[in-house]
Amino acid sequence: MLDKGPYSTKIQGVNGLYPYKVKVERYLKDLREYFLDRQKVEEMLSKGENPLIYVVYEIDREGEGEFNVGCTIIYPGKIGDEYYFTKGHFHAKEPTSEVYVGISGKGVILMQDRDGRTFVEEISQGTIVYIPPGLAHRSINTGKNELVFLAIYPSEAGHDYETIMKTGFAKLVIERDGKPILIDNPNYGRYL
Ligand code: M6P
Ligand code: ZN
């Protein structure tokens, strides 16, 4: 029933959606190239520390005009001063947008265009964030609890992870004096 025709599902807070079709777990090991302090990441991994960073529960669809619906849970935590985040991606099919709805916790949606121009929106319970076509997007948990949000996007959008993996985001969200701030990424574009 989740593959075709109407369905309904329920938001389960930190347990995502039920029913759902796909569950994706991302551990530190899956994000080893993404954090600024790579040395710290390698140190942790070599000690057998491989925390779960985020989980996505999704109902994906196939076919023209369909939407994918997903719920992402990002755990609270930092690598050095850098808050836990999602990988971030452009859509493979450029003219597609996405809508996020904040369920609980607090965080930041970092967006950027292909020239590295940055846009930031805060998210918490009840916030709707619209991500227009052409912007890469990453979600960052700046709070002390899980950040939970819903995502709705065209099922033909696709995920282009490679561009972001190579260049990084132009800005990073780190903690300073107990608060989140945006800084320039010293490594931005390094792998171009
Ligand atoms: C949201 C949506 C999904 C995405 C997920 C995790 O739920 O944007 O498409 O997969 O966040 O983000 P990422 O794929 O960048 O790791
Ligand atoms: Zn997306």
Percent of residues in beta strands: 35-45%
User: How many DSSP-defined strands?
Assistant: 17
Helix fraction by DSSP (H/I, runs of at least 4): under 10%
Major sheet characteristics: 6 strands, antiparallel
Give the low-pLDDT segments: none
Tell me the name of the CATH homologous superfamily: Jelly Rolls
Mean pLDDT: 97
Structural class: mainly beta
In total, how many domains does the architecture comprise?
1
CATH top-level class: Mainly Beta
- CATH architecture type: Sandwich
Helix-strand string: EEEHEEEEEEEEEEEEHEE
Radius of gyration: 16 Å
Description:
This protein is mainly beta. The chain has one domain: Jelly Rolls, CATH 2.60.120. It is 8% helix and 44% strand. The protein is built from two helices and 17 strands. The protein has helices at 38-46, 162-167, and strands spanning 10-11, 17-18, 22-27, 52-59, 67-74, 78-79, 82-83, 90-91, 98-104, 106-112, 118-124, 128-131, 136-141, 147-154, 159-160, 171-176, 179-184. The strands form six sheets. It has a six-stranded antiparallel beta sheet with strand order 3-4-5-14-9-12, with no helix packed on it. It is globular. The chain starts with 9 loop residues before the first strand and ends in an 8-residue tail after the last strand. The mean pLDDT is 97. It binds 6-O-phosphono-alpha-D-mannopyranose and zinc ion. The site of zinc ion (ZN) has 5 residues, from loops. Zinc ion binds at residues 89, 91, 98, 137, 153.
